[in-house]
Amino acid sequence: MIDFRVTGKGPDGAPLQAVLSAKTKQEAKRILESKGIRIDKLEQRKEFNYTVTTPTNTKLKGKKQAYSTQELKDAFVKHGYKNVKVEAVLLDFKVAPPMQSILQFINLSSFMLQEEMAYDKILEILAEEEQNATLKNALKNIQSELKKGREGEDVFKQYEWVFGKFPAYMLGLATKSGNMNEVYLATAKYMERDAEYKRSLRSAFLSPMFTVVLMMGAVVYYVGWIFPATAGMFTRFGLPAPPLTQATLDLSDWFIANGWWISILVVVPTAALLLWFRTPQGQFYRDKWMVQLPVIGHLLHKTSIEIFFRVFGSVYSGADNNIETLKAASEASRNKWMEHGVKTIAIPMMLRDGAALVPAMAASKVFNQTTLNRLRSGAETGNILASANQIARFFEQETTYKMKGVIGSIEMFVMIYIGVVLVLLTVVSSEIAMVSPPVPGM
């Protein structure tokens, strides 16, 4: 979201100046025009490089956000700075900082909150110590905005691209929480488990798939071009080729004759599938099919349930119709199928029919039976929050232990596959060395 400052006239014709957030300038214009506001000037908040001299003759350089060059210059002069030079950032590429930097900021903030330091001071100290320029500027701007009295949720929402959607939501929520430290600890735990989920996906799918595809490509290249150059002497000298060698040469000829068709039949559907997976419908079916995979599917499903209830437990207020809690937890679960079930079935049942939390979640059909039984027990004892936290801890322990075993098994099968391919290539290649061509005159 980008901040825009509008100067114009309201529906009643009175002069108006206000700030709103939107994704684009066009969207901001549509919002204002829909409210009957006549726009005289619409300024976007941007990054500016500045160089100033302090009243004590110390030269300072940095970046700061403002709506215009003149506004920033006037602010520096007002505070007694001299030799003020302000320039707009020409190439304002927004590159999010690494997850480790965000996690370090959250953990250090939690530690300093435990030491009962003021939040404003925490942001100031961590901004000065931060090495990543993007995060450093973000923290400085957040501190400045909070000082001006802006709501923490609105300020952190503006920096979703820095912290991530859910961490930004949680950090904004923490600014009005009675226990900021607990919210920060919960956010850090969520980020750690989310990173573990991504590592598990890479280890279970991407790395083995990459290895298998690369090996297949090497085999095709060897069979199609390298091997014929070596074994072609049988054809050139009219010698009978050994059976494996002849079969491989026939396969090579077939590959060369049909290579384009094979490439099209493999590449086009794969590219189409990957592009479809980028659409909302494709993401829904991808995640739905993923949890149905043998061996690993139920572990991925339980990991998503764990993340769901970790977030649920962090923001649950105790209300039986805590809609915002369910929305936030479903979006954080990393599973579009689960998110769809919660948003289109569970939440409408609660709003439309007044259904209780547990029956509505059961109707969504995206939670396993163990989860629903534990939630029912929590509802009967009046402590849903404790049940949610127990589900998160239990599935964390189970999936962490079992996932290591599954990934180890997948790696073993990949190694067996590589070994078998290498043995076959060795046998085919060595067959040539066993052939003794007939001696002339015999």
What do these coordinates show?
The chain is 68% helix and 10% strand. Helix 9 packs antiparallel against helix 13 (297-315) and helix 12 crosses helix 15. It contains 18 helices and 6 strands. The protein is mainly alpha-helical and 442 residues long. The radius of gyration is 31 Å and the shape is globular. Strand 4 and strand 5 form a beta hairpin. The strands form 2 sheets. It has a 3-stranded antiparallel beta sheet with strand order 2-1-3, covered by helices on one side. A 3-stranded antiparallel beta sheet has the order 5-4-6. The protein has helices at 25-34, 69-78, 99-114, 119-129, 133-147, 152-157, 160-163, 165-174, 180-231, 233-236, 243-276, 280-290, 297-315, 323-332, 336-353, 357-363, 369-381, 384-433, and strands spanning 2-9, 15-22, 38-44, 46-53, 59-66, 82-88.
Mean pLDDT: 84
Distance between termini?
Answer: 87 Å
Instruction: Give the fraction of residues assigned to helices.
Output: 55-70%
Strand numbers in spatial order across the main sheet? 2-1-3
Describe the main β-sheet briefly: 3 strands, antiparallel
Low-confidence stretches: none
Task: Note the quaternary state here.
Answer: single chain
SSE arrangement, N to C: EEHEEEHEHHHHHHHHHHHHHHHH
Shape field: globular
Gist?
Helix content is 68%, strand content 10%. With 442 residues, the protein is mostly helical.
Secondary-structure topology with pairs:
Elements: E1 2-9, E2 15-22, H1 25-34, E3 38-44, E4 46-53, E5 59-66, H2 69-78, E6 82-88, H3 99-114, H4 119-129, H5 133-147, H6 152-157, H7 160-163, H8 165-174, H9 180-231, H10 233-236, H11 243-276, H12 280-290, H13 297-315, H14 323-332, H15 336-353, H16 357-363, H17 369-381, H18 384-433
